[in-house]
Amino acid sequence: DVNHGSAHLLRASFESASFVVREAAEQFPLINGERSSIYLAGGIVRSRHIVQMRADILGRSIFASKESNLSLQGAAILGFIAAGMYGNFEEARSAIKSELEIINPNEANMEIYNDIYEKWITNRKKMFN
Fold it and tell me: Rounded distance, CA 89 to CA 109, Å?
């Protein structure tokens, strides 16, 4: 469509990536019997808009790190655990004060995305099956 520019394509790519995550996340209860929490970290957390979109598409709260550059923190956490300073990931994470922000889904957006997701699944299956 000639009315769609690069911003529309970029948004569609973020939506599609979120749909792929949703498809995988919906399989988690089948693996361990319960609905898993969703944690988000890395460069994506720099955009509150994209994190909100992810929560809306997944239909659940997102626990987003307030730090966008986590490689060094992750290495430190693993080092603390390996050195025996902390017994597990959560103890080590809390020791370095890695804060999480909870992003809740917007109900109205969630309903819209549920419809779009169902169409996306149908079309994806047609293309790849």
Answer: 34
| Residue 80, helix vs strand vs coil | helix
Q: How far apart are CA 11 and CA 79, in angstroms?
A: 38
The number of beta carbons lying within 10 Å of the beta carbon of residue 7 is 8
Average pLDDT, the chain: 87
Amino acid at 37: S
What the block records as the tokens of 46 is: 């720099």
> In angstroms, what CA-CA distances link 62 with 22, 59, 67, 126?
12, 9, 14, 30
Judge contact between 42 and 64, C-beta under 8 A: no
Q: At what angle do helices 6-25 and 48-58 cross, to 10 degrees?
A: 40
pLDDT tens readout for residues 78-125: 899 999 999 888 888 788 777 789 999 999 999 999 999 999 999 988
16 with 120: CB under 8 angstroms? yes
